């Protein structure tokens, strides 16, 4: 193993340890919000989160399930194989947290190291279906909160802008609060000062 590979492996292990601690911080922030402002302050947010997870599940089973069948493998077996990484992503709200172990698992599954080194990071940057779903839903949530009526044309435009905006976006939890701003700002014609 070269020096750079050793440093890279050590860095990935450090990032994996730090990302496993991230849910504790998220829980603390959520507990403070509920304690300070009451459970009613997050009721609509719970509805958004539940709708997002339901939509994501339908996408995984429906769309990705059909892609898996067309390519000759079972999506449920893949989900079982990657369950630790999926739980880590769910707990940290960041796909970046699972990158080191995902690369290791793909190599253990028989994929060539050079292929995994190219395909997985590229997929992280350009195949962000969940980010696209979230950006569209968050923008619609904001439109409802601001009482902005959107026509079907506005909604389709919002979807197209979200699809374009999600490309190249990183899956880090620090960006969770802001990915909907560009599509909302442009499609909903809202002034920046109206945003929290």
From TrEMBL:
SUPFAM superfamilies, alphabetized: Proton glutamate symport protein
UniProt name for this protein: C4-dicarboxylate transport protein
Hydrolase as UniProt keyword: no
Compartment annotation: Membrane
One annotated GO molecular function: fumarate transmembrane transporter activity
Highest taxon, organism lineage: Bacteria
This protein's encoding gene: dctA_1
Taxonomic lineage: Bacteria, Pseudomonadati, Pseudomonadota, Alphaproteobacteria, Caulobacterales
Organism: Brevundimonas vancanneytii
Membrane topology per record: Multi-pass membrane protein
Transmembrane feature ranges: 21-40, 46-73
């Amino acid at each position: 193993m070269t020096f750079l590979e050793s440093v890279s492996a050590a860095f990935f292990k450090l990032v994996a340890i730090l990302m496993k601690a991230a849910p504790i911080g998220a829980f603390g922030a959520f507990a403070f919000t509920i304690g300070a402002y009451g459970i009613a302050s997050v009721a609509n947010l719970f509805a958004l989160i539940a709708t997002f997870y339901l939509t994501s599940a339908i996408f995984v089973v429906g769309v990705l399930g059909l892609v898996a069948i067309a390519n000759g493998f079972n999506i449920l077996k893949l989900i079982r194989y990657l369950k630790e990484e999926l739980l880590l992503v769910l707990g940290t709200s960041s796909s970046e947290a699972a990158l080191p172990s995902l690369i290791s698992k793909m190599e253990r599954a028989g994929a060539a190291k050079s292929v995994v080194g190219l395909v997985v990071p590229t997929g992280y940057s350009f195949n962000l279906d969940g980010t696209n779903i979230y950006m569209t839903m968050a923008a619609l949530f904001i439109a409802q909160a601001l009482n902005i009526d959107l026509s079907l044309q506005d909604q389709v435009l919002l979807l197209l802008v979200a699809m374009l905006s999600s490309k190249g976006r990183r899956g880090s939890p620090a960006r969770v609060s802001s990915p909907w701003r560009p599509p909302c700002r442009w499609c909903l014609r809202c002034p920046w000062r109206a945003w929290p």
